[in-house]
Amino acid sequence: MPARLFVVHGSHPCATAEQALELKGVPFRRVEIPAAMQPLVMKPMFGGRTVPGIRFEDGEKVQGSRAILRALERRVPNPPLYDGAAGAAAIEEAERWGDEVFQPVPRSLLWTAFGVYPRAMHAFQDGQRSPKLPMPVVLAAAKVILPVERRLNDVSDAATRTAIAELPGMLDRIDGLIAAGVLNGERPNAADLQIAPTLRLLWALRDLRPLIAGRPAEAYMSRWLAPMAASVPEGALPMDRADASGAPAAAPEGQAAPTG
Ligand SMILES: N[C@@H](CCC(=O)N[C@@H](CS)C(=O)NCC(=O)O)C(=O)O
Fold it and tell me: What's the alpha-carbon Rg for the chain, to the nearest Å?
């Protein structure tokens, strides 16, 4: 049996692991776990509650995008993921930052935005192997999924405003890594695989596009990754109140999304 990669469709660290498997030419089967169910499925099998996790054909189990990339590098050295003009140490440090600091940003923002526009969740099923749920089922499921995801990801108005306020500095850092040749080299390295999927998910939040558009990071994010068709309409995030303290969220939960 080929390797089995346990994912939640649309998850950015899962995209990291999938891309690495494809680059290394390792055959794998994607096992899709419904959103918010990963603690129930992953914990008993891998010990931790998050996706991605992989079970290789020889039975070795590895959880976490960075650990999966390292296991792949060990098993299939070519093409290398930690080798490039900028040097392995710079790639590893950018990868660490991409995982620990940058990766959590879209999580809190996305679940805030879905709270405002739950209808937008329907299109995020595009490309999944499991059959797509119809809109009424998505809206009913959202009532269960949203509170669980908000709890799992520590979503709060304060965290949302902090993430928005810190995003330009993070984008500056990515532009700097591109200029320094740590990212965006001839072929994707481990840091590219970690950072580009997070950028792509942020782009799916239309409120954030003005912060990203025109930067080197904008062209970079879709160099190796197909753009996401799904997006969340503008007005989902408290952009104009990013610095305000104590302001309520942008709109009441469950409000219908505008068309488009
Ligand atoms: N940094 C880890 C974290 C992965 C992670 O948090 N995945 C999310 C989905 S994007 C998850 O499964 N969350 C469920 C939870 O926090 O219980 C990695 O790159 O593997």
Answer: 18
